[in-house]
Write a structure and sequence with these properties.
2 copies of one chain form a homodimer. Chain A is of the alpha/beta class. Helix content of chain A is 32%, strand content 26%. The first copy, chain A, folds into 2 domains: 108 residues, Cobalt-precorrin-4 Transmethylase, domain 1, CATH 3.40.1010.10; 134 residues, 2-Layer Sandwich (Methyltransferase, Cobalt-precorrin-4 Transmethylase, Domain 2), CATH 3.30.950.10. Chains A and B meet through α1, α3, α4, α5 and β6 of A and α1, α3, α4, α5 and β6 of B.
């Protein structure tokens, strides 16, 4: 009997893949994932049976991985952290319903929110909220309720899936809600394709983004600042976004 | 002129350290961090100038790292992800105020919440809130307000620093708030020392934890389930915690 490894491949390329995840891939008999994430694994795929699965076919992919894991070690690859908008939950649901007793291991990875944050300086720093604007699996009314509460918390909010195919206005609708609770001067950081060749980093404000969000796409992560978040500039040079941890309340420096 | 690398060492040992972080450590002239996190780096420290800094001396450590980076490459080590309750924000604040022009790079890592989640199955899965119960740098009233809003969101809540030295009751106070919004049957996962030798994983419920939280310490991460989170059992065997993504609303399986 095999084991199903649900492996987080992290953002971007294999430079963000943990050694434990790399070893699990190397030890697997079969590797399965969507082509976009498998492409970055390069040499790791040599000599392996590789199953390229289509985007949007998560249930079929999870079921096939479980079926194969009955007698082989299978590595299911999931971008970012598999436990955050990744494959972990649907694989476990399929095991629960259809493959009782199947052994699984989840290996964590660098999640997209902290990868984006690292490119922006320190916009999260401590407490924060992670929300997706995709209403494919979550009703839009639920997303609205969560956004309203999140923006009242005063902490940074990381937005995944700001636009989906066929849902180009979800981000704009979210920004309308944000502006009910936050000043237009609130810093916003946007990272497209973090740790990939075509990475793009933008530091802007809520008011500016509200007027034009055309450069945001489905591969972007947004971080909307909390009540203490500021844009750090040296003269006209933007050096990053800082959300202070609170040391200024305890110590003078 | 040197560069200051703010490096996320991830949870546990070097098996969770990204290749990019490992290379930055290997290339650094000086490595600085608190002894607890430096201890896990082992062979990475050979032949390096290493500065062991005391816990609680974050501002001094940040300032010393900046001073040294004036003419050497310095690697500041921060456990988990440096941008989440780590050293990134205070280092950037010190650069902003005292070392203008100093070059910095933040390298992301596996953050404690997703590391803990991976040990519990898939308790986060999507939208979630990250909060710390330490009132060392954040006033307790602010923490209470954030907890109240977070629990109303219906999403999983990851709690860092559930107990601090001298603040053993913060967790109990947070659980009192949780019980105003959530059933006692709400699943709670607790992971102590994730990816370390003395790792401990506990699956319980809000009601049970409210009655006895004595096994939770400052090195524990708690994940309090959202409104759809469930404990997955096979007969009496707990196999994990699942927060479904929502596929069951779209597809039959």
């Amino acid at each position: 009997m095999g084991t199903l490894y649900i492996i987080s491949s992290g953002p971007g390329d294999v430079n963000q893949l943990t050694p434990e995840a790399a070893r699990a891939i190397a030890a697997a008999d079969i590797i399965i994932g969507n082509a976009f994430y498998l492409a970055i694994l390069g040499g790791f795929l040599q000599g392996k049976e590789v199953i390229y699965s289509a985007m949007g076919k998560e249930i079929d992919r999870a079921r096939e991985a479980c079926r194969l894991a009955a007698d082989k070690n299978v590595a299911m690859i999931s971008g970012g952290d598999a436990g955050v908008y990744g494959m972990a939950s649907i694989v476990l649901e399929i095991i629960e319903h259809e493959f009782p007793g199947l052994e699984y291991v989840v290996l964590p990875g660098v999640t997209a929110a902290t990868a984006a944050a690292s490119k922006l300086g320190s916009p999260l720093s401590g407490d924060y909220v992670t929300l997706s604007l995709s209403d494919l699996l979550t009703p839009w009314e639920v997303i609205v309720k969560r956004l309203e509460l999140a923006f009242q918390m005063g902490v940074p909010v990381a937005l995944y899936n700001p636009k989906s195919r066929g849902r180009p206005v979800n981000l704009h609708r979210a920004l309308v809600i944000a502006r009910q609770y936050k000043d237009d001067s609130t810093p916003v950081g946007i990272v497209r394709n973090a740790y990939r060749n075509d990475e793009k980093i933008i530091v802007t404000t809520l008011g500016e983004l509200y007027n034009d969000d055309s450069f945001v796409d489905m591969h972007s992560i947004l971080i909307i600042g909390g009540e203490e978040t500021r844009i750090w500039k040296e003269e006209e040079n933007v050096r990053g976004i800082i959300t202070p941890r609170g040391y200024h309340r305890k110590y003078v420096y």
